[in-house]
Amino acid sequence: MQADRLPPHDIQAEESVIGSLLIDGESISHIIGFLLAGDFYRERNRLVYEAACGLFERKDAINQVTIAHELESRGQLEDVGGSAFLAHTVGVVPTSVHIEHYGRIVKRTATMRRLIAAANDIADIGYADDPNIETALSRAEDMLFGIRTGQQSRDFIPLRDALSPFLETSPLDQADSDTKDKPVPTGFRNLDRLLGGFQRSDMIVLAARPSIGKSTLGLNFAMHAAQERRTVAIFSLEMGREQIGMRLLAGHARLNMHDIRMRHLGPSEEAKLIDSIGFLSDLAIFIDDTPFQSVMEMRSKARRLQLEHGVDFIVVDYMQLIDSPNGRPGGANRAQEVSDISRQMKGMARDLNVPVLAISQLSRAIEHRQSHRPVLSDLRESGSIEQDADVVMFIHREEKFTTEQEWNKQNPNQPYPRGLCELIIAKHRHGPTDEVWMAVRDEIGRFIESMAPERTYAPERV
Known about the structure:
It is built from 16 helices and 10 strands. By secondary structure, the protein is of the alpha/beta class. The protein is globular.
């Protein structure tokens, strides 16, 4: 019925993308997070873009010469029209400034083509006249959902945008330029004395079982770094931007998160909330809450943010949710995929010269041992995480595993460690390992330095 019509495409936009890449290879960071090689309609444009992505992944320069060499090594240079075609695309655009605009056009037309293909497939389902209507509808819905989930990639937003439901905010200040080569302070004196802050190009793993507080502590690190005039990037694969904004807001204002969510606040608490919104809105914290993305996408987004604002610290929450779109031959298991992700994250830290805090899950093994203190082998799907990491930290809260009654039977002369956690430095490539004690306020999302339990169990006042 529609055989006389060509599917949507824009050859000029495709060639403009290729020409922009050949003019400025760094411009690929503006599009690689959302534009796939399969989005190109014309085969030769797809081949050139694949070659550019290959060079980017290897951290090689992208220009007319390197692209030609890459295509030649793949046996595809003649297929795309040789060096003459590459020269042609360079002449299509005068500058690479608008590469993202051209990329969005290519992405849009590719989505329309996928929609047409899905419509044809849905028509086939209808013609099949499956007696089970629920099965037919589910298959049709899955096809449309597959197209929509392919468009979920978002990008970094300033923290002030996540706080916008609460209050209109002020402009974002830039971080001080004289901090770009210094370690990033953790905000906890004892931990800074042990680690010297988070060192540049280090991969730091923060691991714990669910509901222990690893995301909360990661956000505490992020807020402390931003308060020291550092620019922080948060990749949140688990929580949305509004949840992150609320947690940071509750921690700074020292207000109960549930009360903020339900807006059960008195006049004085509302005033504290407004003051905290104003304060946090001026911090250089950027949030990307895209639920499914790969390390390669993160690296391209972080690199672009570094060019635009400068990045000093990256938080990824959490490792096991990172996508591995390329998969592995032979049906390799998830542990091997996480090992690949770990190596790529370490590469991102070195490439951007910033500390990367990777939050990770621990296995259930600690729940079945007499001692619940985590060890390195408890890293879930660990693979090479332990080897790649420069620092590995565990959060241990005995109160999450032992009731007060059980504790009193086993430790009759020691107070129950309510509201206390032990931050265990299990690996430190550049220095000693040790433990740092902290008090935890779950209801406001804060960790506070505390004395070791041998001296006192009373947390600091907050």
